[in-house]
Design goal:
134 residues; mainly alpha; Ferritin
């Protein structure tokens, strides 16, 4: 079985928040640690939901457009999780998995909104069904 997108995104977020933590200043360090723990817990729970899933692909954050700012990187991580869980929710085969995906999407979207308050004009892509920002 291939790795579900949501599980892969959570695995990448755990790795990515480690990178964010390394560059975080004291003003965001507590929030970064909280999100690292939250993503680790979600990844572990997702592994339990998909026990036969293959390992997540390696090569996290290797794109040339990977942000170097800790907050912009956190924004990207949460955005990637939102996209992955939204897709995963559409593919969910059971109500339990659909609810898990919805909860994960909600948590990522809320944290994405929090990070964006720290960077006015941060990159934004509307979720499907919502109008783009004007």
């Amino acid at each position: 079985m291939t790795t579900p997108r949501g599980l892969g995104a959570e695995d990448a977020a755990v790795f990515g928040y480690g990178v964010v933590l390394a560059g975080a200043d004291s003003g965001i360090r507590t929030a970064v640690r909280r999100e690292l723990a939250a993503h680790r817990a979600r990844r572990d729970a997702a592994e339990a939901l998909w026990p036969e899933a293959g390992p997540a692909p390696v090569g996290y954050l290797t794109a040339p457009d990977t942000p170097t700012s800790p907050v912009l990187l956190a924004i990207r991580l949460e955005s990637d999780c939102c996209e992955a869980w939204r897709t995963e929710m559409g593919d969910a085969e059971t109500p339990e998995i659909r609810q898990f995906c919805l909860d994960a999407l909600t948590a990522a979207a809320l944290q994405l909104a929090r990070w964006r308050t720290l960077v006015p004009g941060a990159p934004f892509e509307a979720l499907p069904g919502f109008p783009p920002p004007s």
